[in-house]
Amino acid sequence: MKIKQLHLRNYGRFEDLTINFAPTDERASNVxxxxxxxxxxxxxxxxxxxxxxxxxxxxxKGKENKFGSxxxxxxxxxxxxxxxxxxxxxxxxxxSLNWSVTxxxxxxxxxxxxxxxxxxxxxxxxxxxxxxxxxxxxxxLPLIVYYSDSRDINHKPFNWNESFTTNILTGxxxxxxxxxxxxxxxxxxxxxxxIENETILLGFDKQTKEEMPYLRNIQLLRLEEQDLENQLExxxxxxxxxxxxxxxxxxxxxxxxxxxxxxxxxxxxxYKATINYQGKPSLNAVRKSIEYFTEFKNPRIRRQGTPTMxxxxxxxxxxxxxxxxxxxxxxxxVGDIARRLAILNPSFDDPLQGEGVVMIDExxxxxxxxxxxxxxxxxxxxxxNVQFILTTHSPLIVSDRADILVYLLDDxxxxxxxxxxxxxxxxxxxxxxxxPPRTPEVEETFNAIRRAISNKELESAESQINNIAKKVxxxxxxxxxxxxxxAQAKLAQNKVS
Length: 497
What we know:
By secondary structure, this protein is of the alpha/beta class. It contains 16 helices and 14 strands. It has helices at residues 42-61, 122-134, 182-201, 206-210, 214-234, 240-265, 268-275, 281-293, 325-344, 369-373, 375-382, 395-398, 425-431, 440-454, 458-469, 477-496, and strands spanning 2-11, 14-20, 31-35, 82-90, 96-104, 111-114, 143-147, 297-302, 308-313, 316-319, 356-360, 386-392, 405-410, 413-416. A 6-stranded mixed sheet has the order 7-11-12-3-13-14, sandwiched between helices. A 5-stranded antiparallel sheet has the order 2-1-4-5-6, covered by helices on one side. A 3-stranded antiparallel sheet has the order 8-9-10, with helices on one face. Strand 1 and strand 2 form a beta hairpin.
């Protein structure tokens, strides 16, 4: 599945905007990047896509009324009383499917409609995907997910009282709202890893098999621990001394259960090697994506004490809480994409081959320039059948590949950017983001020096060079250039005289 076109009418700052997405005849990749200054409308385009796709997504989620999201009233252009979003996509059979969403303000409640409701495309949309899945004709569904610029990257402790119940439709959970959540990602990872560990333990000897309940006992004990703590906090008139005694006993049982669990599981890696265990495809997909994008190896859950995820970097074990915001953000972003692909493609040997659409606002958020530079290339290589629609403020994002489609959004106007592959960051900052490569004062000083040299005012040029040399680094490139220009001009003047 790929989105081919978006048409906005009276939405945000756009009275009439049509945008086509890669791949196109000119740009073969599945990547479209929208750049522009703050307030240009980049986020509004992704929000509009998310709103339109919500109607499509609700078909899979099985909602009775098949109602997606309304256009936010604040997004309707002040000059008009209604706004519409029109989307055209290609399904897995390369057939074009089109629908629109319209919202009218000043009605109680605000009136929203979609032509999905009238049956024009509903049957076709439904049969081409979810109905075929229910009938067993296909074993996968397309990924649809939107990561906003306010995506949550704050890691919180695991709640062992909760389990992540997985069916194929959980691949769409919070897909167009919260989008990215550490806890959701880690909770899923923990539960799938438990299943993987139990599968491995089935191959151990009889004694180890009998010890397998520790995988579940710890969770049950923690549930009882939480219940007792709630009683102490919220209940009155109870025998608190008796509760405290029981709570102490439970905590001791948890401690011993954790110790035993660690004893059982610490040899799992050796056992995996012995039996050449390949692991679950879903976890392998997540591990592969994290290791490819980052320097982290062997992501796994540490269960002893406060449960958390740990990774290895340069041979050292690190808690995710010890990572930078950029490291956590990138690890969780690519891990979440891989996780959703694994859920939506349960029969795939390599879930990373699944199809879908991923929208990321400010894809450079929290990322070091080194990671920005090859981010798109890694996205394309890791998720080859996923269409990416991105926004960014970083010139490093858009200069890495020649086959991506780049749009410049400026004051509500959209134009395609050509021939920016391989351009240096300063050029892109100036031409696309309208940011000068250096402060205006310094830039004007160097320009004045060049003019003075050109006019053969060499004393004035030398004086200005000496002044600016007190303010900038001695290795400043522009300073070295004007000094060379001055030396060449003096040499030429001496030859004439």
